[in-house]
Amino acid sequence: MNVHRTRGVGVLVAAAALFALAVSAPARADTVTDWNAIASTAIVSTAGQSPQAATLSFAMVQGAVYDAVNAIDRGRRPYLVVPPTKPPTNPSDSKEAAAATAGFRVLAGLFPSQLTTLQPLYDASLAAVPDGPGKDGGIAAGAAAAAAMLAARANDGRNGPFDLPIGSEPGVWRPTPPTFAGDPAPWVGNVRPFGVPSAAMIRSDAPNPLTSGEYAEDFNEVKQLGALGSTTRTADQTEAAIFWQDHGPALWNRVFRTLSASRGLGIADTARLFASANLASADGAIGCWESKYHWKFWRPITAIREADTDGNPATEADPAWTPLFDPATPQFGAPLVTPGFPEHPSGHGCISGAIVHTLQDFFGTDKVAFSAFSNRTRTTRSYDRFSDALKEVIDARVWGGIHFRTADVQGAVLGKKVAHWLAKHYFQPTG
Predict the structure, then answer these.
(1) Portion of the chain with pLDDT greater than 70, in percent
(2) pTM listed for this prediction
């Protein structure tokens, strides 16, 4: 794996400038990219949705944008069956107007309190499209796609009631120090998936039994490499761990925008890229959270501090053990802590696994160089292959002290199942 890093204030300034341009610029050939950036601001920065909840909102926006553009392009099968517009769409209709309308209307439906911010951005997008039947047709296509998405996702389980299970037995999850916080969106695993038939169908394998050699191996690895004061974790590993603790869906969608530009994708292919990756991400999160609350496995900080209860002679308790993800660790953003939900499988592994395997399928190869920027470290890391990033995500969760390796690997496997299912059943050519 070849990973390159770029540091410094200049990188942050450049990234911020590019982001501002993407959000504020009027509609161009990459209106899909513009509205993806707008969606990221609305979902992550303004609404403050957690990564697992944000995947669902991104999927709704990008699925509708794809259906709107595809209704005009007609090169692929739709994601949803959208009722025909009157008059029917025409190949000369504006894909830009369609994309902007679909993105705007789904976001307005999800976040009505943001309408005063979203409306001027939508008006600017439409102002760049010449008036006429083509613009009107594009608006109609976008409105129909958004309405279909909002209707399809009504009563899908989002924000539903959930009784948070808290245990005290060895191996069972309980809130962790120092904040003892709970899951901000435990209901995600009960949401109806976007593509796969059911979350239970893709459930991960079980965690390693506490008395097994495999568990002891994972335990001792994270105990050594993931400790706050680890003497074996390198500086680069520390940075990678913190880097990938940025908001995962937001980070990956920045990557999608970069890939669209660097690969010269047209508006229809960009819409398909964003939709396929975000729909896979959403089902990865849904499957992951269903698995998490099925297995209810404890976090390393609990396991290591209470190892004298696990019945495994190859593990040794350290009541004072603290992971790298601790408020004492310097970085940019909210204090680092162990996430407030069960450990197995890894959420980042599920989401990143779904995304990486979708990208491999979309581009037909793993060997695509790309870069990613993290607000946690304010650095850019570059990769020669998609799989290089996934491998680093798997490692990074161990280095952060919040996951056993098996949970990371099982998360990536779950994500792969999602990606392969969606690639087989959706976005097929019409010819």
Answers:
(1) 93
(2) 0.93
